[in-house]
Predict the 3D structure of the following.
Amino acid sequence: MNIGAVAKASGVSAKMIRHYEQIGLIGHSPRTEAGYRQYQERDLHTLKFIRSARDLGFSLEQIHQLLSLWYDEQRSSAEVKQLAESHLGDLDARIQALTTMRDALVRLSESCCGDDRPDCPILEGLAGHVPASSSPPQLSKQKAQGV
């Protein structure tokens, strides 16, 4: 299989296949007399594995570890689970950080009237004049009125 065919079958671009070969995630492929790379079924399976791991957000280093475990028939599934759970912890931290950013942006957006006036609480908040964590003025007035 040439690089175009394996790229199409695996969902990994030819550029990334070359990169993965260069960094050792996949073995160096044999070449034709004309210098074209030739890939085997095993390479295709490895590229699909890499693609699945990338889709789940694993880093290249983690994928290298996962591939080593995948190839090792004597592996302990505990090692694989530990790697997966470590990645889950990283994902949870990223989700929390994104949620915090989203909440701050929602507060800024809700504080802006979005009319023709030039004053904009969003820009003021981004400039540091209004803390992103403060309540929008409309909500503060409602709270003061007991609504």
In short: The CA atoms of residues 3 and 18 lie 9 Å apart. The chain has seven helices and no strands. Residues 134-147 have pLDDT under 50 and may be disordered.
